[in-house]
Amino acid sequence: MEFTIPAMSCGHCVKAITQTLTQLDSAATVSVDLPTKKVTVQTSQPPEKVAAALAEAGYPAA
Ligand SMILES: [Cu+2]
Known about the structure:
Blueprint: E1 2-4, H1 11-24, E2 29-33, E3 38-42, H2 47-56
Antiparallel strand pairs: 1-3, 2-3
The structure holds copper (II) ion.
Copper (II) ion binds next to helix 1.
């Protein structure tokens, strides 16, 4: 699944987002494209749960 996260602006954000997602699912594969603010996640978790975890971390998906 893919999310656009406007609040993501630097390497720290990328790290925080990656950490959030791997906390939700330790088997998650996260790939981030900072210039386009896109996060691609491979996870067994449902999208709404992933989106909720991102929002909770301060990075709501657009
Ligand atoms: Cu940042």
